[in-house]
Amino acid sequence: MTAIRMHINGVEVADDVPPRLSLADFLRGRRHLTGTHLGCEHGVCGACTVLIDGEPARSCLMLAVACDGREIETIEGFAGDRVMEVLRRSFHQHHALQCGYCTPGMLITARDVILRGRAGSERGIRDGLAGNICRCTGYTNIVTAIAEAAKEVPDAG
Q1: What's the Cα-to-Cα distance from 99 to each of 95, 120, 136, rounded to whole Å?
Q2: Order of strands, edge to edge, in the sheet holding 49-52?
Q3: What share of the chain is helix, strand, coil (3-state, %, to 5)?
Q4: What global pTM score does this model have?
């Protein structure tokens, strides 16, 4: 077991974990943050996307011990975030989700796309979402929702 400390959604946590425990399993099993979904567990689908020190990362590929001393933000941690609020509303209005399995990772990635100023074109949005797979929607409504959200928060990027 290895002792770790990190901030998750602004709260300091400490735990003893097995050295090979993934961050995704730590978040879901130990911290009960089940908004972080596990899909492929190979870093391909993007369902497990979280922010690590402000950068989107696949939590299924990251070991919890590698996050010692770092800032982790899961989908549950965006209360009061203006860009996320606008994105959630836009996803709802534009029917940009169906089963919802990809949605937490997709929203975190979409927020990053907007904040990096990559939401000004369909190509920029699609390139930014390249690592997030949705098996239900065909992406058209997701791209539309992100483009519309970006218009509502033009100062974000």
Answers
A1: 11, 27, 7
A2: 11-17, 2-8, 71-73, 49-52, 55-58
A3: 40, 15, 45
A4: 0.95
Region of 100 please: left (phi>0), alpha (psi -120 to 50) or beta: left
Residue with tokens 């928060």: 153
For the chain, which domains are there?
A: 2-77 (3.10.20.30), 82-156 (1.10.150.120)
Please write the tens of the pLDDT for every residue from 99-144.
999 999 999 999 999 999 999 999 999 999 999 999 998 899 999 9
| 44-72 residues labelled b (16+ CB within 10 A) or e (exposed) | ebbbbbbbbeeebbbbbebbbbebeebeb
**Angle (deg, nearest 10), helices 103-115 and 140-152:** 40
Enter the tokens of residue 126: 């699609």
Contact 137, 99 (CB under 8 A): no
CA distance 5 to 14: 4
Residue 17 sits at the vertex; the CA angle it makes with 29 and 26, to the nearest 5 degrees, is 25
